[in-house]
Design a protein that fits this description.
By secondary structure, this protein is an alpha+beta fold. The chain is 28% helix and 31% strand. Strands 1-2-3-6-7 form a five-stranded antiparallel sheet. A two-stranded antiparallel sheet has the order 4-5.
């Protein structure tokens, strides 16, 4: 397994829309293992392939306390979203140290496949619903700060630039 490099906003590669996965092979399963290892090491609760500069529709997440319940979503699609919105504080491995409130549907139904190609449908609510929407946004070329006002987006970019100069 290998730790992958996580792209940081506003890297233009984060805006690229991921392509559907068609080959459910050992290379895909290795990508999933590497993404899981990278997410746990970061540490984070979710990671989309776009964030590691692989533009395929793959994401992993683990919301368990023990960090031993990796979930894999290949070619995920939101089939349905509730009208009810919730506001949650979100952060992102591609936007380190930045957190802000984002409004999203409170519940969603997701259709996806696992790393072997088996299809499944999952009804999501609470943190799982927020996380799956956040990660699917990545696959669609969108980072959570793009849900914020233009002023807040500019502040995030300025803060991240300032931090990079200090490194």
């Amino acid at each position: 397994m290998a730790l992958l490099t996580i792209l940081e906003y506003p890297d233009p590669r984060l805006s690229r829309v991921a392509e559907p996965v068609v080959a459910f092979d050992e290379a895909l399963r290795q990508l999933v293992r590497d993404m899981g290892e990278t997410m746990y090491a970061a540490p984070g609760v979710g990671l989309a392939a776009t964030q590691v500069d692989v533009h395929r529709r793959v994401l992993v997440m683990d919301l368990s306390e023990e960090k031993n319940a990796l979930r894999v979503f290949v070619n995920p699609q939101i089939e349905w979203a509730a009208d009810e919105l919730v506001s949650c504080e979100e952060g992102c491995l591609s936007v380190p140290g930045i957190y802000d409130q984002v409004r999203r549907p409170a519940r969603v139904r997701v259709r996806a496949q696992d790393e072997h190609g088996a299809a499944f449908v999952l009804e999501c609510s609470d943190t799982l619903a927020v996380c799956i929407q956040h990660e699917i946004d990545h696959l669609n070329g969108k980072v959570f700060v793009q849900h914020l006002s233009m002023l807040k987006q500019a502040r995030v970019v300025a803060k991240l630039r300032k931090r990079r100069v200090r490194r």
